[in-house]
Design goal:
With about 200 residues, the protein is mainly beta. It contains four helices and eleven strands; from the N terminus they run H-E-E-E-E-E-E-E-E-H-E-E-E-H-H. It has one domain (about 5-195). The N and C termini lie far apart (about 40 Å). The structure holds manganese (II) ion (MN). Manganese (II) ion binds near residues 42, 46, 48 and 99.
């Protein structure tokens, strides 16, 4: 739905010769977009990294999960966009369904686009199209800058790398995928979710 459609009802209800309310224009909500990292025990254990972008969640499957060590270059395979409402999904995808297995919300929070080109800020959409995006995460477990770099490794268009930026939140010893396995929503580990869903 375009902006004009979105505002149609708002405008229809008001007489702008009488009200001082704006007729339109202005900036969209200042609320920052959100990210989520879901641990997903499908045929293979992996982590799904999703960024709110243009009304959907742009998604990557990260087999080893995101690292806090800037030396780790983690493979991130681009997958299909997911609905925004997916961000707090936890539970079990039944046998026979696509992605069958347990899902927990391993981390979530707001993020900020930090992508630049020639010293100028560019949109995340543009940065992703150009194959190099930078974001700052404000999660419960993961904080600070991360780069998403399109590699076309092994000739595969879907292959990206996600790498921690060397900032105050970089920590080579933390290894949160192993040391902080609980869901930030339910407190359950992926194994506990599997037992709960049995
Ligand atoms: Mn998945």
């Amino acid at each position: 739905m375009g902006k004009a459609d979105t505002l149609r009802e708002y405008k229809k209800k008001r007489d702008f010769s009488k009200t001082a309310e704006p007729q339109g224009g202005g900036k969209r909500s200042s609320r920052k977009p959100i990210f989520v990292i879901q641990q997903h025990h499908a045929r293979r254990m992996h982590f799904d990294f999703r960024l709110e972008l243009d009304g959907v969640m742009a998604s990557w499957a990260v087999p080893k999960g995101l690292s806090t060590d800037p030396r780790d270059k983690r493979l991130a395979v681009r997958t299909e966009d997911h609905p925004l409402a997916y961000w707090n999904f936890e539970g079990r995808i039944p046998e026979g369904e696509y992605g069958a297995g347990e899902v927990i919300v391993w981390d979530t929070g707001e993020y900020e686009n930090m992508s630049r080109k020639n010293g100028k800020q560019i949109s995340l959409k543009k940065a992703l199209a150009q194959g190099h995006a930078e974001i700052e995460l404000f999660g419960r477990k993961l904080k600070g800058g991360y780069a998403l770099i399109h590699t076309r490794m092994r000739g595969d268009e879907k292959n990206w790398l996600v790498v921690k930026k060397n900032d105050d939140h970089a920590d080579a010893r933390r290894n949160p995928v192993n040391s902080e396995p609980q869901s930030v929503l339910s407190g359950m580990t992926i194994q506990e979710m599997a037992k709960a869903a049995e």
